[in-house]
Amino acid sequence: MSENVPKGPASYFPSIEKKYGRPVSEWQELIRSSPLTKHMELVSWLKSEHGLGHGHANALVAHTLAEGK
Question: One of this protein's Pfam families, by short name (predicted)?
């Protein structure tokens, strides 16, 4: 088994890029530029405005917010 297998929220990134056709970096820029700051507000926004599923939206928000800490 490879040791370079992403763990945590990043494990969703390949399927996010494949399903929605945009690189994770674009999603992260959208999240960073949003006036929303709370985790679940951002998740709800990605779901309602951009059509992401809950798990994918949650993974993107969790990873992006963790980078800012």
Answer: DUF4287
User: What is the residue whose two structure tokens read 């370079």?
Assistant: 4
Q: Which of 65, 66, 68, 59 is nearest to 24 (CA)?
A: 59
CA–CA dist 69, 48 (Å, integer):
26
Burial class from Cβ neighbours inside 10 Å (0-12, 13-18, 19+) for residue 2 reads: exposed
Nearest to 62 by CA among 18, 17, 15, 12: 12
Write the CB contacts of 14 (distance below 8 Å, at least 6 apart in sequence).
6
Q: How far is CA 61 from the centre of its chain?
A: 5
Beta carbons of 5 and 11 less than 8 angstroms apart: yes
What's this model's pTM, rounded to 2 decimal places?
0.88
